[in-house]
Design goal:
The complex is a heterodimer of chains A (730) and B (400). Chain A is α+β, with helices and mostly antiparallel strands and 730 residues long. Chain A is built from 23 helices and 20 strands. In chain B, helix 2 runs antiparallel to helix 3 and helix 6 runs antiparallel to helix 7.
Chain lengths: 730, 400
């Protein structure tokens, strides 16, 4: 029986297969753009080739047969040459994958070639996802999955329409019939005709079901901490932003500020303790030489910055800050291998074991390698660097400053041009440092700098001999944060106070939707630290910031109100934060937390239900305990009689619920009769009675119990042979 | 009745769960190349995910697993409420094309069914005791294969694909053709229904118990009619010598080219939807009875015995169409009057199952046939090493 619904012909199925395969290839090759493996030109060419072949399916037949024969040896040679020349495995494999996809895209495919496309494409998508940990991966793999499933389904249906013949290789140089008459407009019209809304809705529902199921599986798959991190990111070299390496030149941070991309997001377990202007310390630069600051060699020695490899780093000697919140950082790739921190901490946890160096004296933590993907870490017991960063090592060194050995005193002024020292001494005298402690000096130095210099991201350093920073200090030119911080350090050292430059980020915004700090590259900043011998701590000094005492600094809601971001950008960013929090950062602990949350929800629901039942029972009890009189008893009796009558009418079939009447199958007598009709072939009178019970009006029924008794006693010869007529699968 | 339904529902779930542990006989699920690749990918990605603790890989893994589950659900939905029935139109004859029809019905409300295939098999069998099971543990592999090959000998098998979509509520008919190689009782069965739907990961084959038993008649053979006829003509019947349309109506048979249109029985034709003609019991002096003797002593060569059966079947059909076959008997059994097509088909069914009898096929038929027919007794004798000849009253009338 033909229901009249249109069907796609074999040629149209082949064309649909070609379309889906092409889309799949384009989708997967496009991921290479954000993989940063240096294959942009090849990617563009491959996409163009696939696109042309997709639009004109007859074109691949023009490729000569010898080209097909040479294709695989040539691709293999290219791969080996690439590997030998570049020496990087993963980029070479990615380029090999692109070439294979390109070849499959520009040649007519057999069934198994379609499977190759799926596998090659999946490889690219997964590698891109692992390397970037981007939210885009989620969208991309969903679209890829939908297209891949569609392609495989069309391949199966096409094979069946061809009579299930063995897979055939496409004949090279011959245009298949479906490609010769390819008409995309016609295919679109036909697809519109064939698509039925119920089928489309079912397909969508199934796909949503697959996504939901994969989400559940993702949550349920047991996680183990194997402490054996691979992985792909090691095969792709990355470069950090130069402003956050251990040496900077003036202007480096200004370049970073011009980028408005997100540098990192920070979750805070207790927003009430959120500072209004957090200073995210990353690198401490204590040595000034040749017009630039850098971290000196003694400070990088293993005694100061110890090497570690662990997933959880405890510093038992430091006590935790009571009630300190937990901070979770999501540091984007390409920012730095130095991790932003507010100060010292008690525990720092990574998702998996990491190689890193940490200096509790400097308050710095640096990963061994530049992270190629987003790096997540959780910090507990972190004490911000206000009122000061205590440094017992430097305090001891300062007490024994006459001894030449040990960590640098950070008083050095490497100014080879002799007049610079005199100029600097004169400028320091202008500040008026005599008899001041570090905090007072800092205050006066800031005021002096702000009086002489304005702020500009495009500073001008006056030309001339000698040190550029001293020249800038002596001028009235505006400058940026690095110049201000550097000038302060030179002035402090000249006045006899140890000082150093610190780079990192300042401030950020508070995302109103996801409830976290978002710090952008435009928040990059440099400031200074000056040694306060009286406190035995390094004091933060930002020459560009107004002086605000710790007591007056806002915290919690008041602080966040000023940072609140409710823009569309914040909305989008909240999705990315969700991705990092719930997906990328999901680990064994998160799994346990999820199970606990489910258990808690179940418990609370159970409690609510029990309370509701108990409340209802107590109300019923109270109702029964109420005073009874004749009128009340009569009313109750009337209601009970009405309910009983209704129940009796329902039970005896005098009143039927519409839902039951709607389906004859719902009637147990009819259902039982149908059951016997399927089993029996005779005798005819019995069959007639059963048919009447099954299909006839109930008023004409014989007594059902008698008919069923006769059916049970029917001789075996009248029973149908199992499987003799038909069978339905279940 | 409600409890019966409840128990049935419980039984369904119990069966469904148990089938996962212990699949039904003939139910097979095999991974295809795509499926093997998918499983391999899942294992590889899973290993990498655990090694790297990368949630991106866990996402890919969970999507792959979800796709496998979706594949199972769609495959189940595809086969759900699809009913099938065999439609076989006899007669089936050795060496001639036989067509087996499969009627399909998709009972689903709005989901179509795609990409099924049906595996058929036709194998001769006897209704005797089933063979005792024998262990293969002690047998050599080659012996087992040989035994299996022997068991499959004479079995015709093939598959038919559902090429087009079977719409919800729709019906379709698929035909499978085969050529029977042996006569006898055959079991034609729909062995299994298979599907690669939806993604071709798994080859799911579900065994069915749908089968039909049919007789395959001996092959038609060419034979030579010999001029000398041995039929005796009783003196009183000479005026009715032609095979005509006179006398009492004896039976209905199918129309054949050359039959008079006046013989068409219109009511029967309308009822059976085939053109049927009346057959009269005209007093035919050339009518005869067929008597087959299956002595293994006489028919010592199996191929000659087969030829004899084929010759007998061909002659029986020709004589019946000519209205000259009165009765037929095999060995010592009672002769069966051949009045209707059903009688002839019953005889041919018996013929298809005949085998050489070990004891000499004793004497004449046990019951007396009509006098005239018994006088025109058609018998068969070997002729030479390979041939077979037929005799009427001892006169050679035809030969292969």
């Amino acid at each position: 029986m033909d229901t009249g619904r249109p069907r796609l012909s074999l040629e149209e199925l082949h064309l649909l297969r070609w379309l889906l395969g092409g889309v799949l290839m384009l989708l997967s090759i496009a991921t290479v753009f954000y993989m940063d493996v240096g294959s942009e030109v090849m990617t563009v060419l491959a996409m163009a080739g696939v696109l042309v072949a997709l639009a004109r399916p007859a074109l691949p037949a023009r490729i000569p047969v010898w080209a097909h024969r040479l294709a695989f040896p040539a691709i293999l040679m290219f791969f080996l040459g690439d590997l030998w020349h570049e020496g990087q495995l993963l980029p070479a494999v990615v380029r090999l994958d692109i070439l294979l996809l390109l070849y499959r895209g520009v040649s007519h495919r057999a069934r198994r070639d379609d499977l190759q496309i799926v596998v090659l494409g999946l490889f690219l998508i997964v590698v891109a996802g692992v390397l970037t940990v981007s939210l885009l991966f989620a969208a991309q793999i969903l679209v890829f999955t939908a297209c891949a499933l569609g392609l495989l389904m069309v391949v199966t249906i096409t094979a069946s329409a061809e009579g299930g013949q063995a897979p055939k290789l496409a004949v090279r140089g011959v245009v298949p019939g479906w490609a010769a008459h390819a008409d995309w407009g016609h295919l679109a019209r036909r697809l519109r005709q064939v698509a039925e809304w119920r089928l489309v809705a079912s397909a969508l529902a199934l796909f949503v079901g697959v996504v939901a199921l994969s989400g559940l599986l993702f949550l349920a798959i047991p996680r183990f901490q194997l402490e054996n991190s691979l992985f792909l990111e090691r095969f792709v070299p990355r470069k950090a932003m130069t402003g956050f390496s251990d040496s900077i030149k003036f202007g480096d941070i200004s370049e970073i500020i011009e980028d408005n991309g997100v540098a990192f997001d920070v979750d805070l377990s207790d927003p009430a303790q959120a500072p209004a202007t957090p200073y995210w310390r990353m690198v401490v630069l204590d040595e000034y030489r040749n017009g630039g600051f850098k971290l000196s060699s003694p400070m990088r020695s293993p005694d100061i910055m110890g090497k570690e490899r662990t997933a959880s780093y405890y510093i038992p000697t430091l006590r935790g800050v009571p009630g300190a919140p937990t901070w979770t950082f999501y540091l984007e790739s390409g920012v730095s291998r130095y991790l932003p921190l507010l100060g010292r901490f008690v525990v720092l946890r990574f998702r998996d074991a990491q190689n890193f160096r940490y200096s509790p004296y400097l308050g710095l933590m640096a990963l061994r390698d530049e992270p190629a993907t987003m790096t997540a870490y959780r910090v507990e017991g972190m004490a911000p660097d206000t009122p000061g960063l205590a440094d017992s090592l430097f305090a001891a060194r300062w007490r024994n400053r006459e001894v030449r050995r040990g960590v640098p005193l950070q008083l050095e002024l490497d100014l080879p041009f002799a007049p610079d020292k005199a100029t600097l001494a004169g400028l320091t005298a202008d500040i008026g440092a005599r008899g001041l402690d570090a905090a007072a000096f800092a205050q006066k130095a800031n005021a002096w700098l702000q009086r002489l210099h304005g702020y500009s991201l495009s500073p001008r350093i006056p030309p001339g001999p000698g040190d550029p920073l001293v020249r800038w200090m002596a001028s009235r030119e505006p400058g940026h944060c690095e110049l201000f911080a550097g000038a302060f350090v030179l002035a402090a050292r000249s006045a006899g106070f140890p000082a150093r430059v610190v780079t990192g980020f300042k401030g950020g915004t508070w995302n109103a939707y996801s409830g976290n700090y978002t710090v952008r590259n435009s928040d990059a900043h440099a400031w200074a630290e000056i040694w306060d011998a009286r406190r035995g701590a390094w004091l933060r000094d930002d020459p560009l910031a107004p002086v605000v005492s710790e007591a007056l600094e806002k915290k919690g809601d008041a602080a966040l109100a000023a940072l609140m971001d409710r823009s569309w950008s914040a909305r989008l960013n909240s999705i990315r934060v969700f991705w990092y929090r719930r997906i990328v950062n999901f680990d064994q602990q998160s799994q346990v937390d999820t199970i606990r949350a489910v258990k808690a929800a179940t418990d609370s629901s159970g409690k609510w239900l029990r309370a509701a039942v108990a409340g209802a029972a107590s109300r019923v009890k109270a109702w029964f305990a109420g005073p009874w009189n004749l009128e009340r008893a009569g009313r109750v009796a009337a209601v009970a009689a009405a309910a009983g009558a209704l129940l009796w009418a329902l039970l005896t079939g005098r009143i039927r619920l519409a839902a039951l009447v709607a389906s004859r199958k719902a009637d147990p007598v009819r259902r039982e009769a149908g059951h016997w009709l399927r089993r029996l072939e005779g005798p005819p009178p019995l069959i007639a009675d059963l048919q009447r019970l099954r299909f006839g009006h109930s008023g004409t029924w014989p007594r059902p119990a008698d008919v069923f008794r006769r059916a049970r006693r029917a001789p075996p010869s009248s029973r149908r042979v199992p499987g003799g007529a038909s069978r339905s699968t279940s | 009745m409600r409890s019966a339904n409840g128990s049935r529902r419980r039984l369904f779930w119990r069966r469904a769960l148990w089938s996962l542990v212990w699949p039904r006989r003939r139910d097979r699920i095999q991974a295809t190349v795509s499926g093997a690749v998918l499983i391999g990918l899942s294992l590889g990605i899973g290993t990498a995910a655990y090694n790297s603790a990368s949630n991106i890989l866990f996402i890919a893994l969970s999507l792959l697993l979800a796709c496998l589950l979706l594949s199972g659900v769609l495959s189940w939905l595809n086969l759900r409420r699809v009913r099938w029935a065999l439609d076989i139109q006899p007669p089936l004859r050795v060496g001639q094309d036989a067509e087996v029809g499969l009627l399909l019905h998709n009972g689903k409300r709005f989901l179509p069914t795609y990409a099924l295939w049906f595996e058929f098999a036709a194998a001769p069998f006897s209704k005797g005791e089933p063979a005792k099971p024998e262990t293969t543990l002690t047998a050599k592999g080659i012996d087992v294969w040989a035994a299996l090959k022997q068991a499959e000998a004479g079995t015709s098998s093939g598959s038919v694909h559902l090429r087009a979509r079977l719409d919800p509520g729709g019906e379709a008919r698929l035909d499978w053709g085969f050529v029977p190689s042996r006569r006898g009782l055959h079991k034609i069965e729909l062995r299994s229904v298979g599907s690669l739907y939806p993604f071709g990961f798994l080859r799911k084959v579900s065994g069915t118990e749908l089968c039909r038993e049919v007789h395959v008649w001996p092959a038609p053979v060419d034979y030579r009619r010999l001029a000398a006829s041995g039929s005796r003509r009783p003196s009183g019947d000479l005026q009715l010598a032609r095979t005509g349309n006179e006398g009492e109506m004896m039976a209905l048979r199918r129309y054949e080219a050359g039959d008079s249109h006046r013989l068409v029985h219109w009511k029967a034709s309308a009822r059976t939807r085939r053109l049927m003609v009346r057959q009269f019991s005209a007093q035919n002096s050339e009518a005869c009875s067929m008597w087959l003797r299956t002595d293994s002593v006489v028919w010592s060569r199996p191929e000659q015995f087969e030829l004899m059966l084929s010759f007998a079947a061909t002659l029986a059909l020709d004589l019946f169409h000519a209205g000259r076959l009165q009765a037929a008997a095999i060995d010592g059994s009672a002769p069966v009057p051949i009045r209707r097509v059903a009688d002839l088909e019953s005889f041919l069914d018996r013929l298809s199952e005949a085998s050489p009898s070990p004891a000499p096929g004793g004497g004449a038929p046990t019951q007396a046939s009509p006098g005239r027919a018994r006088q025109n007794m058609l018998t068969f004798e070997p002729e030479g090493a390979r041939g077979v000849a037929s005799f009427i009253n001892g006169y050679r009338t035809a030969a292969t």
